[in-house]
Amino acid sequence: MMKQKRKICGVGFLLALSMLCSVQAQATAIRDRLDSTGKKIHELEDALDRNDQNLSAYEKERNELEQEVALGQEKIRRMSEQLDDTKSAITDTQEEIVRTQEELEQAQADSKKQYVRMRRRIRFMYENSTTDMILYVLDAGSMPEALRRANYFQAVLSYDREKMEQYQETTRKIKKDKAKLVSEKEQLETLEIKQTEQLAGIDTAVADLKKKLSGKIAQIQSSKALQAKYEQDLERQKRYEQELERQKAEEDRKREEEIRQQEEELKRRQQEQSGSSDSGTSVGRTVAASAGDLELLSTIIYCEAGNQSYEGQLAVGSVILNRVASSSFPNSISGVIYQSGQFSPVASGRFAHALASGLGSRCEAAAREVLNGRRNVDCLYFRANNGGIDGLVIGDHVFY
User: Which residue spans adopt a coiled-coil conformation according to this UniProt entry (predicted)?
Assistant: First the structure.
């Protein structure tokens, strides 16, 4: 009868163990999906950060291009005004050349007329002979009249000579002024060509800047669209992660119940086999701390709760040691930490990086206190607190 009872108990234990394995497999699958989702979230956050950096750079480049375009347009405005002034000066100079040419032609005509008149007077004097001119002077009734008549002939000759010299000087001056105006016009025309070329160059440069600006605006619009897509994908992945967290918490509770039943079954079988009804027999395992256990424990506490309160760090360490003490988890700190599908920092590689960098020293006090026997929670699990999991909330985590 006793053997049959023990056989039934053995079968029950195997069934419980089978159920536990099934729950564990399901929990591992959820853990895998959580890790995959967490990786996607991390990638999306990195992509968002990169896109934000690119967008900031694009915005800065766009502002710089807009300033360059504005400066270029201002140069075009000033150069256009200068070119207009040059063209106006050319027109004014050309008009002045025309007026000078007219003055030159008038002066030459006047000089020609004066020359004709002078020739007529000289011919008259010669044709009427010098004797006649002398008699004309001597026939004067008085000396003053004689002097006046003599001075008249001299004045006529002086007037003609002075007029000729005056017309010649006027003609030389007008020609000189005309030559100067022609030179100024040539210089202005050369300046007009230069200014036209400069204006064309500035126009081309501004057109290129506008083209670049249009391309940069297109990049900004594309980056904003990509940013919106990343944000939507990130929000969707976070909602999915929260649902997985909820499912994982439910599976953890089921597994915790199976663990409790298994440990009670083990305790009962031990009592039957020993024939003792001592209810104080412990099924937990003692912690055999090695030289590296403190470093491992402090590092996992840092990765999971480095930004939390001291109580939160103690709680994470307590969960690790509670698992070590449980018969359903590995019986060493390293075994618990490296157990497949349990801690996301281990799966992502962040734990290995923190361990190599010695970052765990920041949480060494909490790890040392837990190793010395302090436990502030009796839970086997903890998750990020998203409001959808029941349990003991400490900081950003919920323990259950």
Answer: 41-121, 164-194
> For the chain, how far is it from start to end, CA to CA, in angstroms?
41
CA distance linking residue 29 with residue 31, whole number of Å:
5
Would you say residue 106 lies in a domain?
A: yes
Distance between CA atoms of 256 and 378, rounded to whole angstroms?
12
User: Same structural domain for residues 300 and 387?
Assistant: yes
Q: Which of 281, 329, 321, 273 has the alpha carbon at shortest distance from 301? A: 321
Look at the block and give the residue holding tokens 């008259």: 124
**Spatial separation of the C-alpha atoms in residues 168 and 150, rounded to whole Å:** 28
Q: pLDDT (tens digit, 9 = 90+) per residue, 90-100?
A: 999 999 999 99
pTM for the whole thing? 0.52
The token duo for 67 is 């300033």
The alpha carbon of 353 is separated from its chain's Cα centroid by a whole number of angstroms, namely 31
pLDDT digits (tens, 9 = 90+) for 42-75: 899 999 999 999 999 999 999 999 999 999 999 9
Give the position of tokens 């361990």. 355
253 domain-assigned? no
Residue with structure tokens 């007009």? 192
Contact 175, 101 (CB under 8 A): no
Whether residue 360 contacts residue 367, with contact meaning beta carbons closer than 8 Å, is answered with yes
